[in-house]
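Action item from last meeting closed. Structure (214 res):
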């Protein structure tokens, strides 16, 4: 793998994985090997990555920073700065809560993770790489909700910040901007994520769960 192609899709690897997923016996037999191949290809192809603990710590700092921004929206006197602080909280939370939500739900259902990295569709954002052996062994319906968790957390973030607006004294435009951000994220989920991101993976794993024999 270190000297060959790391494009697993072109090599037909994911077609094989799709055949394995619905069969519990095949998962038990091949999960470890599939996980090793996936991890090796990922690490050969992605150089900008950090350990999971470091990524979680950085994003936790972001979540705390969003909380500080809300506090500033209450203590500052300037309406403009109040509005900017509240808007900063919504944007920061929308970025910072996504991957930790995946991590929390994933760990709860037995999935481990190997790395944080920068990726995704533009603009680049923090991503969390699964340990694919543990991913395969997890219940597929639970895997689906692990994928959904990050998307849901991101969509809620601007509305959580918006909930502080009435008491903060921030101007109307900050509320309008947070509402617009929340609605825009929902629209992009409906139009894009169902085709290429978390909600596509959600639907894929739901289909696997339906295809498994009781």
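Sequence:
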């Amino acid at each position: 793998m270190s000297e060959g192609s790391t494009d697993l899709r072109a090599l037909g690897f994911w077609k094989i994985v799709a055949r394995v997923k619905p069969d519990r016996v095949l998962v038990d037999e091949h999960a470890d090997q599939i996980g090793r191949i996936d991890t090796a290809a990922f690490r050969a192809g992605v150089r900008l990555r950090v350990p999971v603990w470091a990524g979680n710590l950085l994003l936790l700092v972001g979540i705390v920073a969003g909380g500080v921004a809300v506090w500033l929206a209450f203590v500052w006197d300037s309406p403009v700065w109040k509005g900017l602080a509240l808007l900063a909280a919504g944007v920061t939370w929308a970025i910072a809560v996504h991957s930790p939500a995946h991590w929390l739900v994933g760990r709860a259902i037995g999935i481990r993770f190997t790395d944080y990295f920068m990726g995704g569709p533009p603009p680049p954002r923090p991503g969390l790489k699964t340990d694919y052996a543990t991913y395969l062994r997890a219940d597929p319906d639970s895997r689906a909700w692990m994928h959904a968790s990050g998307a849901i957390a991101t969509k809620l973030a601007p509305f959580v910040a918006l909930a502080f607006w009435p008491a903060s004294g921030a101007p109307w435009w900050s509320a309008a901007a947070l509402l617009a951000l929340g609605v825009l994220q929902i629209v992009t989920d409906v139009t894009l994520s169902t085709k290429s991101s978390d909600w596509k993976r959600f639907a894929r794993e739901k289909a696997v769960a339906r295809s498994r024999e009781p």
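Note appended to the action item: The mean pLDDT is 93.
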